[in-house]
Design a protein that fits this description.
Structural class: mainly alpha
Shape: elongated
Order of helices and strands: EEHHHHHHH
Radius of gyration: 47 Å
Distance between the termini: 124 Å
Helix content: 55-70%
Length: 215
Amino acid sequence: MEQHRTRPPHHAPRRGAPLPPQGRRTAPVPVRSGTAARPSPSGAPGRPEPRGGAAGARPASRAAGARRPAPARNGAAPLVQAVRRLPDPRLTGLGGGLFCAAVMLALGCLDQLLFGASLTVYGVLFLPVCALTALWVRRGDLVAAPVVVPIAFAVGLLTVTEGDGGLGGRLVGLATALATQAGWLYGGTLVAGVIATVRRVRMMRRRAAERRRTA
């Protein structure tokens, strides 16, 4: 009597049946050239992240900065350059007085020849001479600037005053011109005094700053 052999049950996976999670294979994510895949915290492959993201943005920002238009130059630049080109002598108190007196004498002679001894023209020309005298006096003699300019005004006024003749007539004409042209005299003295005061204050600030640096 024949006995049929029994085979052990063999559980073979059916075709088309889904595989267990362990047997599944994840398809590789295509990575472009120049990019690196950034892993996610769960371990699954994440999205590709471009390499040098911040570094790649820097050249763009630099190019954008290079394309920016240059700032417009200040309109006062030519004026400042012209002022810097002027001579910058340093006169003593006596030298400043002689300079101012000599210039006013020359301007008085020119006023008499060209404008018929006009006191108004003489007074207008006196103001820039006072400013130059106060600018060119050295720092140690700044106090002398507003003192010498009225003397120079009176010296130059002798060339444009009218007198009856002789020394007495000239002195009377000088006194009359000083009384009638006192506004120009005070204005020039004020200009010299303001410039000298500003220079004095700046000098004191510089000295104080130097002391703070050395301290």
